[in-house]
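Bench notes, afternoon.
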Amino acid sequence: MKHPLAGVFCSLIAVALLSACSQRYSAIHDSAPSNVPANIENIPDAIPRVEAKSRGGNPPSYQVFGKTYHVLNSSRGFVEQGIASWYGSKFHGHKTSNGEIYNMYAMTAAHKSLPIPSYVEVKNLSNGKTIIVRVNDRGPFHPGRIIDLSYAAAAKLGTLKHGTSPVKVTAIDPTNTANVTTAPAAQLKYLSPPAQEYSQQIPPGIYLQLGAFNTLQNANRLKAKLSHQLALQSNIKQLEKTASTLYLVRIGPYPTMAQAELDRLKLQRLGIHHSHFVSQ
């Protein structure tokens, strides 16, 4: 006989599980970012390098949804064909399986059995495009899928439109990359500079812009706050407009979009939510 309180207990357990998920992720469903960088498909590939295995994310085996997965000791010689998917803003800023922060604008991926970190070449069998990503997470655990790409990696591979793509995944040996070709480090234009922009001696690159002020005094006040309270070095760019002058407070330059995004997340956790990417 079914206990009369069994349904209540099951409901409480379900609520607890949903509550735990909602506490970890601010969104219920995954999605693309609301503000997509203009040239995201030009983000450079991951550059393979020799790395020690992460302390986290590499158990001999683990279980998800009742199924056991075994982690490989080495990625050498690994080749696999199947379906690639991608994950985005729901997981952005949260920890990956090895404790790193997931950055949907970095060239990374999740895999169920490759050691973390690993580097793999992913070829889209439907359009011939090829990318190189760094595996730093576990998944995907949806039946039939073999690799979960970051949003940027999926954009570069041409996977975003349909959500999934047939791919071939080939592990890369970082000690022997003579035959590996990576995409050139393109300069990313996230905002086009105005025609009347006046440039001071500020080096080119990717910047985080935190504010635009009518007076130099207010710009210097924010610059000092960033330096003294957050230990972030910024600069002030003067923008000459027809009838006024703006003083733009920026952090940078950053060598990669991924590093800029990490600082943007740091600023968000400190309550600064209005920064955005620009290029010099």
